[in-house]
Fold this protein.
Amino acid sequence: MRLEGRVAVITGGAQGQGAAEAAAFIDEGARVVIADVSVDQGRSTAADLGPQAEFAELDVTDEDAWDAVVSRIAKQYGRLDILVNNAALYRVCPLLEETVAQLDRLLAVNLRGPFLGIRAVAPQMAAGGGGAIVNVSSTAGLRGYPSHTSYGLTKWALRGLTRIAAAELADKGIRVNCLIPGAIEGPMLTSAVRDEEFAQPEAWSGTPLARAGRPTEVAAAAVFLASPDSSYITGADLVVDGGATATG
Ligand SMILES: NC(=O)c1ccc[n+]([C@@H]2O[C@H](COP(=O)([O-])OP(=O)(O)OC[C@H]3O[C@@H](n4cnc5c(N)ncnc54)[C@H](O)[C@@H]3O)[C@@H](O)[C@H]2O)c1
């Protein structure tokens, strides 16, 4: 098992891709802390995943809350090996209609969150000899999609933060990479595209694999970036989009 004995924190792990990542990490032998603002859903997901999973209430925008979660893990397990900065808010709004309040809301969760997370976990990871951080960006951080104003901006910036952190933390044994999902099944996608639209084959004409991805397919890539299988990879983007941005 590739993550045997590792301790991982997955933000936004209460549902969607984060929950699939939690399940995949546990299958590989890790203990997983699901850190989410969604308390009922987070507790229920952790309970479904069994004794290798636990829930910690965390608003990723709150620096003190990060410190509390990391100290609790340090006390409980004496180690912290993996952070997946997965929590995010999605929003579609044209540039000229976007408000500063909405921009700030997305910046807080999608960018300040991962920034605080990296700073909170790095000392603990370094003390244990190293670790792996996976920042979940989006193909909206590879392209200039119309109306992905605040969301796209945060996802582009997260790729930059990944490279900066990779450069700074390499000498502590910490690798930092970016996972870049395309259209993945789940509530975030259905909020952007109506079900009947993406059931049509033409909806996928720009995607060589001609379908949406599954959360388990993103989770498999997250396991790779978190595990020693990617031991010589840092500061990189791993695109999981069925080929959409390779050809579009
Ligand atoms: N679904 C897609 O098609 C898609 C495509 C590209 C990238 N992504 C990225 O993948 C990641 C997961 O997407 P998903 O579709 O599973 O999302 P989702 O909306 O299903 O889940 C997001 C989770 O983040 C949590 N969250 C929101 N704000 C938070 C906060 N302040 N603190 C802690 N937790 C918070 C939510 O409670 C929720 O559990 C996100 O980073 C998203 O931007 C998704």
Q: What stands out?
A: The chain has one domain: 7-247.
